[in-house]
Every structure is written in structure tokens, then in C-alpha cells.
Specification:
This protein is mainly α and about 325 residues long. It has helices at about 5-65, 70-85, 105-115, 125-170, 175-195, 195-205, 210-220, 240-280, 305-310; strands spanning about 290, 300. Helix content is about 65%, strand content about 0%. The longest helix is centred in the N-terminal third of the chain and has 60 residues, at about 5-65.
């Protein structure tokens, strides 16, 4: 029998174990944000000041060389240029580009909307298009998540089949699992992050590092919009280019979601172990009988005959955070 107040003690231990873990997670999260803030400020702050200073210098040089212009008229011209760029128009030449609201440009905008990438280089300007974009995203985003989930399951099934086939060859599931997981990771890294920058370098004139940066920012759905394909009016893009890139985005996002899910499971593993220990009571469950069930909660198994009589008090479950 449990002593009076034993359930309250176990409940208090579980709550005490969860609260420090949550506080530590919040502290780590805030510290990580503070680290990013400091690094971005140190790396980009000086460059932004230099860019603003150079712009003001060029502006006043233009006003001095062309005295027929005044500052107000030049500011209006700059605003019109910025707005025209947001609308997808190119002012340097009359060359047609896929960045405008053409068929391929509209298709790529639809892809960037449902995948929540949102580059920001192209946005609807009419109120009817904005209202349609709301309802289009409301249905398209969940549909895109369902498709990504299905593709992720297909990729996982392929990895499990490889593990099953390699299990007999390697005389055990553990080496086969590591080999199949490593092959899936390396093949996805090659297909979705290492090879596409070569295509972008050829089609867009970017460097390899710029193409790699665009690949990760796109597949992670961050989508800053500083690099967008098909926006150079001096280049001719084939019709298959945007279609191939759209398929690459779809499968690449599914692969990267699996990698992020793996990292997430590794980060959440200590919490699951801690919750398992503080749910095991002192008398009715044995130390080896507490396991996690399918839903992640503790699953108790009945003790085997003869083990309870040989169990010593020192081998019983201890509170979370103490050594057994």
C-alpha cells in the first residue's frame, strides 16, 4: 500500500520536473534570438548605413548635375520605381520577363502562396485579387500540408523498405537503419541543396553560394525575396524552368520537413524520458516496466512473477533528476 499523500508527492515531482524544463527551453529560445539579433546587427548594420549614405550621395549628385529636377520630383520618381518593381514591371528595357503577371509568373506566385514562402517581390494590387488570395491561401495552405505529409510518408516508406532489405545483409536492423538513414540524408542533400545551385548559377548568373543560399531560404519557406528566379529582364528563360523549380520546391520541402522533424524529435527526447520516470510509482510498477506507449505517454506492464520478491528498495524507481 502507498503511504497517505504518496500520489500528491508524485504529482509534485512531475510538476517540478516539467517547470524547470519549460523555463530552460524558454531561456534557450530567447538566448538564441538574442544571439541572432546581435550577429545580424553586427554584420548588416554597417552595410545598411553605407548603403543609405551612398544612396543619398548619388541622389544629391544627380540633383546637382540636373538642376531642372528638384528634390520632391526625384522622390516621387523613386517611389514610382519602387512601386513598379513590386508590381512586377521592369523599367530597364522592354524585355518580357517571368516576373510579371503572365501565366508562368502567376503560376509561380500561386506556388509561393500555398507553400507560405512569400518572396514579396510580387503581390496583388487590386482588391479583388487580394480577396481571392485570402480564400485561395485559406484552402491551399492546408492542401499543401496534406500533400507534403503524403510525400513525407512515401519517403519514409522508401527508407523503411531499404532498412528491411538491408536487415538480412547486415545481420541486424540497427546497422541497416543507420545506413539507410545516412543514404536518405545524403541523397536529399545532393538533390535538393547541392545540385540545384548549379542550375541557378547557369540560368541566373549567380555564384554557387548565392544559389545555395536561395535554395535553403526557399525550401525552409523563409523567403526573404532578395533572390528570386526569373527576374532578370536581360535573360531568356525556357518554359520548363519554372515548372522544374516548382517540383523541386514541393519535394524539397517534404524532404527538409523530415530533417526538421528528426531534429525536433532529438530535441524533445529528454522531456519524454523525464515524464516516463516521474509517472512510475514506488510500489506498483517496477523500474523496467515503465515504457512509452504509442502516444508518447507512459505504458505500464505487469511485473513478472518472482521479480517482486527479489526486488530490493535500492532498485526501486527514484524521482526524476536523481541517479538510481
Amino acid at each position: 500500500m502507498h503511504p497517505p499523500g504518496a500520489p500528491a508527492a508524485h504529482k509534485g515531482r512531475g510538476r517540478g520536473c516539467a517547470v524547470p524544463g519549460t523555463l530552460f527551453l524558454l531561456f534557450a529560445y530567447l538566448a538564441y534570438l538574442a544571439l541572432g539579433t546581435g550577429v545580424f546587427w553586427a554584420l548588416e548594420g554597417r552595410a545598411a548605413e553605407d548603403s543609405s549614405r551612398n544612396f543619398q550621395r548619388d541622389k544629391w549628385e544627380l540633383l546637382q548635375n540636373f538642376t531642372c529636377l528638384d528634390s520632391h520630383a526625384l522622390d516621387l520618381l523613386i517611389r514610382d520605381i519602387i512601386q513598379s518593381y513590386k508590381d512586377g514591371a521592369h523599367l530597364l528595357s522592354n524585355t518580357t520577363s517571368m516576373g510579371r503577371w503572365e501565366l508562368l509568373g502567376s503560376f509561380f506566385f500561386s506556388v509561393s502562396t500555398v507553400t507560405t514562402i512569400g518572396y514579396g517581390n510580387l503581390s496583388p494590387q487590386t482588391m479583388a485579387a487580394r480577396l481571392f488570395c485570402i480564400f485561395f491561401a485559406l484552402v491551399g495552405i492546408p492542401l499543401n500540408l496534406v500533400v507534403l505529409n503524403r510525400l513525407g510518408h512515401l519517403m519514409q516508406r522508401g527508407v523503411h523498405r531499404c532498412v528491411h532489405r538491408l536487415g538480412g545483409t547486415w545481420q541486424g536492423p540497427a546497422p541497416a537503419r543507420w545506413l539507410a538513414g545516412s543514404c536518405a540524408l545524403l541523397s536529399g542533400l545532393l538533390l535538393f541543396l547541392l545540385l540545384p545551385p548549379l542550375l541557378f548559377s547557369h540560368m541566373e548568373g549567380w555564384s554557387y553560394l548565392e544559389g545555395f543560399y536561395f535554395s535553403f531560404i526557399t525550401l525552409s519557406t523563409v523567403g526573404f525575396g532578395d533572390y528570386v528566379i526569373g527576374m532578370d529582364p536581360s535573360r531568356r528563360y525556357p518554359l520548363w524552368y519554372k515548372n522544374i523549380v516548382s517540383l523541386w520546391i514541393l519535394f524539397g520541402m517534404a524532404w527538409l520537413a523530415l530533417i526538421i522533424k528528426l531534429i525536433l524529435s532529438l530535441l524533445e527526447t529528454p522531456g519524454g524520458t523525464c515524464s516516463c520516470h516521474h509517472h512510475c510509482s514506488k510500489g506498483d510498477r517496477q523500474p523496467g516496466s515503465c515504457r512509452q506507449g504509442p502516444a508518447g505517454g507512459p505504458q505500464a506492464h505487469p511485473p513478472q512473477p518472482g521479480i517482486t520478491q527479489r526486488l530490493k528498495p535500492s532498485a526501486q524507481a527514484v524521482p526524476c533528476g536523481e541517479d538510481s
